[in-house]
Structures are given as C-alpha cells and as structure tokens.
Specification:
By secondary structure, this protein is mostly helical. The protein is 75% helix and 0% strand. The chain has one domain. It has 16 helices and no strands.
C-alpha cells in the first residue's frame, strides 16, 4: 500500500513539474500554480494510474505562502488597514449579495436546490465552504465542490491575464519586504520563524481556525514584523515550490464525472464566475479611485478567489501584498463568522416552508 502511494505521488509530481516547466516556457503568469494544476487535472484523467496528492503537501505550501504574506505587514500598514475597514465591509457585502443573486439564477435554471448552489457560489474559500456544506443537512456536496472549484479555476486563469494585460497597463506597486535575504543570516532568527510558523499553523488547526496553515504563519510573522523583528526573505525557488504544492492539490479537487446535468451546470457556473469577476473589477475601480491604490492591488484585493492564490499573484506582479491580504482576510473572516448563522436561518426557514407545503398537500 505504501509503495503504491509513493508511485502515485511520484506520477502526480512529475505531471505537476512538467506543467510548471511548460507554463514557464510559455511565459504564462504564476506558471508553477497554473501549470501544475492543469497538468495534474488532465493527467489524472488521461493515465490509468490514480494520482495521489496528500493534504499535508498542500499545507506545507500554505505555510510558505502565509509566511510571505505576514512579512508584508508593518505598523504603518496596520494603521492604514484600520482606516479602510468600512470599505472592506461595504465591498464584502456587495460581493456576497451578488453571489447570492447568481446562485438563485443557477438554481432556477438547473432545478438544483438553492442552499447547495448558494454554498457553492459564495467566495469564502474552497476548503471552508466544503466544511460548511458537510455540516449542513441536505446539502449536495458534489454541487458545492464543483461550483467552488470551477469558480476558483476560472479566476486563477482569468485574473492573471487581466492583471498582466493591457487593461492594467503594466502598473506595479511597491511591496513591503523584510530586511535580509533568507540565507544571509543562518542564525536563531531563521530557526525562530521556521518553528513559530509551523507551530502556529498546528495551533490554528487545534483551535479550529479557518485555513490554519495559512492564517497561523500570517499571524505570527506579521506580529513579529510589526513588533520590529523582521523575518528573512524567502528565495524565489521556494515560492515556486509552494505554488506547485498548492496547484497539484487543486488539480485533483475537480471531479466533473460526478456531476449531473454537466453541460448546463458548467455553462452557468462559468457565466456566474465571469460575472463575479466583472463585479469585483467594477468595485476595484472605485477602490482605486478613492484610495489611490494601483489597479492590480485594488483588483486582487477584491477578486473572489482563494486568498493564497491572490497572494501569489500579488507577489508575482509586485502589487501591495499587505493590502491584498487584508481585504482577502476580512472577507474570509466575515463569511466564516457572519454568513453561517444567516445561512442556517435561511436553510431552516426554507425547510419549514417545504414542510408546511407538504402538510397542506396531505390535508
């Protein structure tokens, strides 16, 4: 069994590495994320060997990304973010309302129950929404997973094209960096950040923090950075490796063969995702105008994708990583702590309504 898993993992890694190389040769944005995801997705369906990508590899990638995101926070950034909380709330609520409307339309056209489509449409993080779906009775987990993964994949492919394309005019903003390269100071500081990032990741998991392997390193690294203890910079190759770790996992998440009414569902999911991207793009223009952010920073701050993917893109084009992280973090926390009680009330109301209809029909 162990030997079989090792062979499957090696095959998966070879596909992911090949994808990263091909996408890099084609000069595509974030090649090690997009390439690994694409080739693992295709390879897992073309070859007889069953691909294998354990969760802990993705979690290692998230720790690396979380550390990099935490380095972007300074005292000045923290004050600036505090002043922007109203805009974070406003844009988050608008994106959720837009997602809810799109879910209602998809539900009407596909005849799929609204709660399942709604959980699949809200951009609250792939793993978080799937966990939420598992906790609710009567939710179609396949629908939720498909819609979340379809939106994430579409955003991962479309957003990089937009941010490096002519619409954004190649504009780049400064990114806050720590004071020293990683290997120039092989002292206790490197060991300190290494141990704390991993430790806080597992602590976050223990206390049921959302996306603990991303948020744990962000919190501890940002706290140290704000207090004046600057962490060492990561070599570019390590960031590429984190993209591969995350991309391979996402590539195996998509299970189109389990989906019923594929053509209609895929079409509506793509239309919904594209509309959500346009909504975020429109809001980002207002954000840019009001706060004078660069266009890439504004758009990535509001783009309805996974926080780790948006952070990787922000790092790639040198957008303001701290602003992107702050807006994405706020939306995730809002969705995870405010939305669930509202959804529970909505689902309970809908279920009671169906029961009343059935009772009237039997009378």
């Amino acid at each position: 069994m162990i030997k079989d898993k090792v062979m499957r993992l090696i095959a998966s890694f070879l596909a992911a590495i090949l994808g990263g190389i091909v996408f890099q040769l084609l000069h595509l944005p974030i090649p090690w994320l997009l390439g690994s995801m694409t080739f693992v997705l295709i390879g897992s369906r073309l070859f007889k060997i069953e691909f294998y990508w354990p969760r802990y590899i993705r979690e290692a990638g998230l720790i690396i990304v979380g550390y990099e995101m935490g380095l972007s926070f300074t005292k000045e950034t923290l004050i600036e973010v505090g002043n922007k909380l109203p805009s974070m709330l406003f844009t988050t609520v608008l994106i959720i309302l837009f997602s809810s409307g799109a879910a209602w339309i998809i539900s009407k056209f596909t005849k799929v129950d609204y709660p399942s489509v709604l959980l699949g449409s809200i951009p609250g993080g792939l793993s978080q929404m799937i966990v939420m779906a598992e906790e609710e009775k009567g939710i179609d987990l396949t629908i939720v997973t498909f819609l979340q993964v379809a939106r994430l994949m579409m955003i991962i492919f479309i957003v990089p094209v937009l941010v490096v394309g002519p619409f954004f005019g190649g504009e780049k903003s400064a990114v806050v960096e720590a004071s020293s390269p990683l290997w120039s100071d092989l002292s206790s500081k490197v060991l300190l950040f290494f141990i704390l990032s991993i430790g806080f990741a597992f602590l976050g998991k223990r206390i049921h923090m959302p996306t603990p392997f991303l948020l744990g390193p962000i919190i501890v690294t940002a706290s140290l950075n704000i207090s004046g203890v600057n962490g060492p910079l990561l070599p570019h190759g390590l960031l590429d490796l984190s993209q591969l770790f995350i991309g391979g996992y996402i590539g195996l998440m998509m299970k189109p063969e389990k989906l019923e009414n594929k053509t209609k569902m895929i079409t509506l999911a793509l239309i919904s995702s594209f509309s959500l991207i346009l909504c975020a793009l429109g809001l980002s223009v207002g954000l840019m105008t009001y706060y004078h952010f660069s266009i890439p920073t504004s758009f990535l701050a509001l783009a309805p994708g996974g926080m780790e993917q948006m952070a990787l893109m922000a790092h790639e084009i040198r957008a303001d990583l701290s602003i992107v992280t702050a807006y994405q973090l706020f939306r995730i926390f809002f969705i995870l702590f405010i939305v669930p009680p509202v959804l529970k009330w909505l689902f309970k109301t809908q279920m009671n309504k169906k029961l009343r209809i059935k009772q009237k029909a039997t009378e």
